Amino acid sequence: MSDHIKKLQIAIEPLRQQIINHKVYPAITELDDLRIFMQYHVFAVWDFMSLLKALQNNLTCTSVPWFPVGSAVTRHLINEIVAGEESDIDQNGELKSHYELYLEAMQQSGADTSQIEKFISELKISNNLSSSFEVSDAPQAAQDFVNFTFKIINSKKDYLQAATFTFGREDLIPNMFHSIVSDISKTFPEEVSIFKYYLERHIEVDGDHHSNLALQMTSNLCGDNETFWKEAEQATILSLQKRIDLWDAVYEQIESKKTIFN
Questions:
Q1: What pTM does this model have?
Q2: Which residues, at least 6 apart from 204, have a Cβ–Cβ distance to it below 8 Å?
């Protein structure tokens, strides 16, 4: 591991610990709590795929006529990650993107998918995030999270996209949350089996193989450019803060609903 990677990891570790130990996880004790979490989190699942495809567009040739773009090593890294995220296997052995799998998990659990579905439908027509958020009435914290992701995407800086993808996304499904879902699945096995599989698959794929590929990709793109590494660190810090803000909003929604019913 390069010194640059180690330095960046040290800089972001306090924020990473805040996310791993966030109070939202122990707050999820009932199926309704999980549904609230999923209705916010699905926007992050979707824009993760958008960030991933932005990297693929920047690092490979995705248009016709084809020409070799950049490093063959980097092309291999991003294409392998895309294949795993965009066409993974579901619990029945069928090919499916992680986003589509997440939607199925929401439907099984009884979570409301109308906001994300309205958002996607409007975005296909308008290609405008603001109007799509308005039509869907998406949670403000989810809007802020997605807007930041697209700020990174629209920067056209592949090294920033790679850094936020690597340090702000790939390594942030904590085992703590997985254990909580395991506990809920004992009580509601028919409602959360797909979500449990989604997390297990995500941890299996991202926890080792994809995270290593992403680390190498970021290191290759930043190289020895100190300015790139500094920008990457700043962007990653902002990305992690947006995740904390998202989790804070989920926690507040869960607690406010419990207060109403108690």
A1: 0.92
A2: none
